[in-house]
Write a structure and sequence with these properties.
45% helix; NAD (chains A, B); 13 strands; seven-stranded mixed sheet; Dehydroquinate synthase-like, alpha domain; Rossmann fold; two-stranded antiparallel sheet; homodimer; 365 residues
Chain lengths: 365, 365
């Protein structure tokens, strides 16, 4: 088992990564504080792992009272109405201030369970058990929680850190291939923004990742978590540096919002967004053509979209990006690549004509 | 103008208290960071003060873009559905991360606007302009924000501190008498839990408070804010000490929930709850009969209820108190008076038979 620590002074917490971790009750139990646990999961994950996790919490005569709530599966249910079901269950089952919420599922479950934990009784403990590659390498680490607003992704939420993250790599065996590839898009991101060697490793090992080679997946998850943990430790509340984790996300969020939540997976939208960000970076003269094509090639090999869907018009992009969380006093700040592989900037100091050209080159109208 | 600082290291903020503060644009403007402000108010307060506050923000050619959202008035609208109206308006008017939410109104508006500010884009600036005595002496200070769940008060929320609190005592001139008396019940609380001299001052000056003597009101507000600021500085997240601010609130919340939000004002329910807490403290032998009767007398003079409504049965009290935020691992912790005037404890170590006797003595069945 590998342990990656997210260093946040008194809120420091471990990420456990390894095979068979959901067979080790002590790991989970030592992070449960009170007598009550509410497991938050969805209709897809519950039949696969809920019984196992409940058993784990109750193992060795633990006396922990375990309740669960099963939400509908999918980004389109990541809304306030679905969140209320978690609060309803928590109140009905008399969860108290010392209780622990356990997020069992992918990024949507982690984000919603985390926000529910942040807001219930103004904050209770929570633990992440991510079961998708996307959640394991990105969303379960760093404390960003929230739900979508009909007009924009993750507009309502909180920064709220878990007690621990338990990543059992065995859970990836049940993951649909499309979900696997979506997660790989986020892995590619870490290489691009800050870890050239990791990007090169991915170029060499993409086939192994797609074949679900356990060692390759474990390494990719560990290296991704280490990168994210470092960034989050330096800038928890996203004053600046942390924003670089959103490479491709401004375009990507616009795609997700524009085609309706659930049309594309998050990593699919981010992949197309990353290609657009690379295109803009190249137009600005900030990266050379060879880097741009390496990015395109690696994402193509990862079997994720490398362009937005044809329904995304220039106007749609512009309207949705105007309400992005990274807009400040009217200026849209973007994460763009600049310089050698592994370097990026977070800036509003780019030629907006180049942005228009990028939109024109990717959109039919 | 008086200034009371709430000392919370990097989130320290001032409470400005005085007459005519809503005529001083620089006070408010210096705490507005970005270019966008969303004023959150209600249908009762908007006709009285919204234009004035918007004018204040725009005074001296400030270039601040001011938007507003007017919510229905009352505790029964302190719910997630109404909160969504704030988010809708914030998204529609393109509020960004540097924007400021301004709460203009009583405790309900402050709690909802604060929680909206905590959750919008995972946290934006906010400023409190409380216009009721209750909000000025209690709810606008200390960062507790949230909304009600149908099964319990303030079950969903956040600890979130404002940039500043601006208390213009002139706003009390438009306050209905019932609201004034409700606020006085919280003022009485500070004396009981930690400030014997303040309680004695109230015994001498209750008539002045009821007659809205400006100096008496200003002193009561200042002393209340000082007491609250001290407690909050020592225990922001309510690990222990801060809970003592909830004297009478467990019984009071049960009354509010039991008769439906909006039936009684918060301070009215707290007043009855304080009398019940004093009764229980006396039954336990923790305070003497003379203190119990001084409490009853002072609250009677303040024209607030000193017993729960007849519709509150013992069973209702018990069921609702079982989901109180102060229940931990099954035990209900209460704030009770113990010893001389000005002393209290926060404990689950009381004889539950005495609690039953108190409920029997105040409830018809």
């Amino acid at each position: 088992m590998e342990v990656v620590d997210v260093d946040l002074s008194d809120r420091t917490y471990p990420i456990y990564i390894g095979s068979g971790l959901l067979d080790k009750p002590e790991l989970l139990q030592k992070h449960v504080k009170g007598k009550n646990v509410l497991v938050v999961t969805n209709t897809t994950v519950a039949p696969l792992y809920l019984e196992k996790v409940v058993g784990l919490l109750k193992a060795n005569g633990s006396k922990i009272n375990v309740e669960s709530v099963i939400l509908p599966d999918g980004e389109k249910y990541k809304d306030m109405g679905t969140l209320m079901k978690v609060f309803d269950k928590a109140v009905e089952t008399r969860m108290d201030r010392r209780c622990t919420f356990v997020a069992l599922g992918g990024g949507v479950i982690g984000d919603m369970c985390g926000f529910a934990a942040a807001a219930f009784l103004r904050g209770v403990n929570f633990i992440q058990i991510p079961t998708t590659l996307m959640a394991q390498v990105d969303s379960s680490v760093g404390g960003k929680t929230g739900v979508n607003h009909p007009l924009g992704k993750n507009l309502i939420g909180a920064f709220y850190q878990p007690q621990c993250v338990v990543i059992d790599t065995d859970t990836l065996s049940t993951l649909p291939e499309r979900e696997l590839c979506s997660g790989i898009a986020e892995v590619v991101k870490y290489g691009l923004i800050r870890d050239a060697k990791f990007f090169e490793w991915q170029e060499e090992n993409m086939d192994k990742l797609l074949a679900r080679d356990p060692d390759a997946l474990a390494y990719a998850i560990k290296r991704s978590c280490e990168n994210k943990a470092e960034v989050v430790s330096l800038d928890e509340k996203e004053a600046g540096l942390r924003a670089t984790l959103n490479l491709g996300h401004t375009f990507g969020h616009a795609i997700e919002t524009g085609i309706g939540y659930g049309g594309w997976l998050h990593g699919e939208a981010v992949a197309a967004g990353t290609v657009m960000a690379a295109d803009l970076s190249f137009r600005l003269g900030w990266i050379d053509a060879s880097l741009q094509s390496r990015i395109l090639n690696l994402l193509k090999r990862a079997k994720v979209p490398v362009a937005p869907p044809s329904t995304m018009t220039i106007e749609k992009f512009q309207n949705i990006m105007a309400v992005d969380k990274k807009v400040v006093d009217g200026d849209l700040r973007l994460i763009l690549l600049k310089g050698e592989l592994g370097n990026c900037v977070f800036t509003s100091a780019y030629d907006t004509k180049a942005l228009e050209e990028t939109l024109h080159s990717f959109c039919p109208s």
